[in-house]
Amino acid sequence: MKPKVLVVFYSRTGNVAKLADAEAEGALAGGAEVRVVRVDDLAPAEVISSNEGWRQARDTQRAKYPEARIDDLEWADAIIFGTPTRYGNMAAEMKLYLDKTASLWAEGKLANKVGSAFTSTATTHGGNETTLLTFFIPMSHFGMIIVPPGYTDPILFQAGTPYGASAVVGGRADIPPTDADLQVAHHQGKRVAEITAKIIAK
Ligand SMILES: Cc1cc2nc3c(=O)[nH]c(=O)nc-3n(C[C@H](O)[C@H](O)[C@H](O)COP(=O)(O)O)c2cc1C
Asked: CA-based Rg of the chain, rounded to a whole angstrom?
């Protein structure tokens, strides 16, 4: 049976979206059925429209990815969450998505699913690792099985973090994730798929 991997992300200027694509390609390479979905912006439309880079990124993402629904979480055997860093934390958009899970949580429907996370910052040491750790808290409340990349591939000695893939990018997508960043994300997606396959086979 193929593991079902959900890659769910929020991205304002498209960098986390690039990491999400690499996670999805990795999960496919690991034998999974994959859904990639985006969490929508919370900012008012007029604010987004007043910023050309943001508006373009929003339109591109709306054309490419379906909007995340709560039942996507129920569908998945494994969930890989992606967010830009906001003051060392996940973005409000992603937090609100997680805060809509109360009924799934109450029914234990997220328990024993595999969880993993990735992020980007604008600055080196700008909070990549702290942001990734903020996912480990709700994942623990859900009873998920956290599968981080660790140092399970040599690429982790060049990029990313043992907690999850990461990138240091330009805020307006002018400095995109590097090849090494994308390789970490690909490895993470593949590893999540492979480990999930072992778990659901039992
Ligand atoms: C409100 C706000 C807070 C941010 N906080 C941080 C931060 O703590 N550290 C950092 O390096 N970058 C920070 N950034 C920059 C974003 O993390 C960066 O623009 C993002 O990773 C780009 O990803 P995206 O292209 O997917 O939106 C912040 C940006 C905003 C708008």
From this structure: 16
